[in-house]
Amino acid sequence: MYGAARLGGRALITRAMNCDLAAGVRQRPVNVTAGRSLAVWEMDVTSPPEDPGHCPPSAAWVMDLDGGKVARLRLFHPRPMAESVVEQRLAAPAEAV
Q: CB 41: neighbour CB atoms within 10 A?
């Protein structure tokens, strides 16, 4: 979700992951929590040295489970909103965007 708009789908997440991997972005699990209906992977994200701002420094993958399979997947980048590119763009005057 971004604001009230739902973003995503399999194609979007697949394209984004392939792009990030090709750019040299790597993820390392730092905490995993799982239950019968929910799993959460907390990750450190490392951007390539030539593009250190490619991705936020951390991510959380939240998976709703149904019968042991992922029924819904959400990706969060828990980083202060004041630093996000999206927030900077929203704060810019309309003629500058």
A: 17
Residue pair 58/77 in contact (Cβ under 8 Å)? The answer is: yes
CB 27 within 8 A of CB 44: yes
Query: Residues 25-72: pLDDT tens digits?
Result: 999 999 999 999 999 999 999 999 998 888 889 999 999 999 999 999
**Interatomic CA distance for residues 87 and 82, integer angstroms:** 6
> Tokens 């202060």 belong to which residue?
80
Sequence-distant (6+) residues with CB within 8 A of 32 are 39, 40, 41, 42
DSSP E strand boundaries for the chain: 26-34, 38-46, 58-66, 69-76
Q: Which amino acid is at 55?
A: C
